Amino acid sequence: MRFQAILLLPLLGLSSARLEPNYTSSSGVSIFNPSDFFDPTGPWSLMSQAGDTLYIAGMRGIYPSNSTLAPVGLPRIRQAFQNMATLAEMVGADLNACVRLVVYTTDMYRYRPMCNDVQIELWGADANKYPPRTIIEVDRLNQDDILEVEGTFYVPRAGLCG
């Protein structure tokens, strides 16, 4: 629980900021790449919004302040989840608005327990509050990373900026 409070402190200041989409398609899909976050490592965007649904791309444990990776293991996994939470907060959502998580890891045996620990830190010990999650072991991730987490969030249109 201590980690949750520490994690959310910097997010509180972001809640009043207005995040504008970088692009909105003719069908109303908004694409977001916040300028104060790290740049995507390829031809993709950090998040998109269609109607009341926010989609956050697979987040890695990259520090937004300098675009470097956190140390391997628990710090990197925490940072990946923190990146997802920060992006959701930028459009007015919180972790309780998460409707689905997908986690990709290169070593289920080693990193799944750490992923579980981070989720308990973020969502608390009440298993009834955990969003559905799929965790998949893969051979390789971008830049030989250890884990990515992507999230889908429900954010009523009135609550979204953009």
TrEMBL record:
Lineage, highest ranks first: Eukaryota, Fungi, Dikarya, Ascomycota, Pezizomycotina
Top-level lineage group: Eukaryota
Residue ranges crossing the lipid bilayer per the database entry: none
UniProt keyword terms in alphabetical order: Signal
InterPro entries, per database record: RutC-like_sf (IPR035959), YjgF/YER057c/UK114 (IPR006175)
Signal peptide boundaries: 1-17
Gene3D superfamilies for this protein: RutC-like (3.30.1330.40)
Organism: Endocarpon pusillum
Family matches, as Pfam families: Ribonuc_L-PSP
Protein name stated in the entry: YjgF-like protein
